[in-house]
Write a structure and sequence with these properties.
Elements lengths: L14 E9 L3 E3 L9 H11 L3 E5 H6 L9 E5 L10 E4 L2 H10 L4 E6 L1 H7 L5 E7 L8 E2 L8 E9 L9 E8 L1
Parallel strand pairs: 1-6, 1-7, 3-4, 3-6, 4-5
Antiparallel strand pairs: 2-8, 7-10, 9-10
Pfam families: DHFR_1 (PF00186)
Keywords: NADP, One-carbon metabolism, Oxidoreductase
Catalytic activity: (6S)-5,6,7,8-tetrahydrofolate + NADP(+) = 7,8-dihydrofolate + NADPH + H(+)
Amino acid sequence: MQNKFDLTTQQTLPIITLIVAAAENNAIGKNNALLWHLPNDLKFFKNKTWAMPVLYGRKTLNALENKPLNGRWNMVLTRNADLNVKGITIVHSIAAAIENCLNKGYKELMILGGSEVYAQTIGMAHKIYITRVHAVFNDADAFFPNFSRTEWQLSSEENFTIDEKHAYAYSFQCWKRI
């Protein structure tokens, strides 16, 4: 009997999509907070994740002040068996999150981070949305994992310059697994 999570079949898995804002050095945060404020990235994030099942870790939940993101089915990955937050489905494995998606008929699961969750899921991901912040943050303490450009292809990119609301140049990129 085949394991329904066998990545070689791709038949029963939902599309696994990672979405992240990362600096040139893959920095994504410091002290459980973002390193920048880019209003257009927040809109991009909201548009891509709206009405979708989203999975993120407990530290990201803490950064969200222990509140679910509106308009999305929120799942939090944690080892804490006692965690209970109104409006959030608690899961203890990636497989459980995928199973939940399959049971509810979803065809895509959005992974929102943090760095540990990205590291656990990048190997099974089909797509990555990166807001590439064109700066380096050497004092960051959280990073998006490196990924091989031989396994991924840039399928779209839209570039933006610094303006009165955005202190950093940035690009919206979509990478698809080859």
